Amino acid sequence: MTDIPAMIKAARAVRERAYVPYSGFRVGACLESEDGKLHLGCNVENAAYPQGQCAEASAIGAMVAAGSRKIKSIVVMGGGEELCSPCGGCRQRLAEFAGPKTPVHICGPEGLRQTITLGELMPLAFGPHNLLDEGPDDEDEE
Ligand code: THU
């Protein structure tokens, strides 16, 4: 079973390690893969601004490097008063390895703020199913 408090705790810890000299905006992400492992990432900015990487992208890289390719649940933690909802590019990156029913738990440093599905965040996503006979999210298709 998904241990959301453990994922939030892990996201909080990795968020502290974000490299954000330009924005000062720390983001941590924790992905649970279908084998139950947790994969962490933080944002990593760069002096050449467009080369910076979002927390979700870092976590996806960690997950794939660990040998997992299907996301069961997602925790994203940002700061400030607003919801730190995954950016458009990260919605597309997540859709590569998650399905429309995959829960996205959006958090602030204090904890969970809102849970939404990836399909709600990104309806009609273009994904592996468009190109492959069997995409990673086939199980979640209606
Ligand atoms: N950021 C993320 O890490 N994930 C998102 O989904 C939204 C934005 C980062 C990128 C940049 O380092 C900082 O937040 C400010 O945009």
List keywords for this structure.
single chain; 142 residues; alpha+beta; Cytidine Deaminase, domain 2; 5-stranded mixed β-sheet; 27% helix; globular; binds tetrahydrodeoxyuridine
Brief characterization of the structure:
The chain has a single domain (4-140), classed as Cytidine Deaminase, domain 2 (3-Layer(aba) Sandwich). The protein has 5 helices and 5 strands; from the N terminus they run H-E-E-H-E-H-E-E-H-H. The chain has helices spanning 4-15, 55-65, 88-95, 118-121, 128-131, and strands at residues 28-33, 38-42, 71-77, 103-108, 111-117.
Q: What would you note in describing this structure?
A:
There is one protein chain. By secondary structure, the chain is of the alpha+beta class. It has one domain: Cytidine Deaminase, domain 2, CATH 3.40.140.10. The protein has five helices and five strands; from the N terminus they run αββαβαββαα. It has a five-stranded mixed β-sheet. β3, α3 and β4 form a beta-alpha-beta unit. Bound molecules: tetrahydrodeoxyuridine. The site of tetrahydrodeoxyuridine has 13 residues, from α2.
What is the end-to-end distance? Answer: 22 Å
- Binned strand content: 15-25%
Number of domains: 1
Report the helical percentage: 25-40%
CATH topology: Cytidine Deaminase, domain 2
Total E-strand runs:
5
The helix/strand series, from N terminus to C terminus, equals HEEHEHEEHH
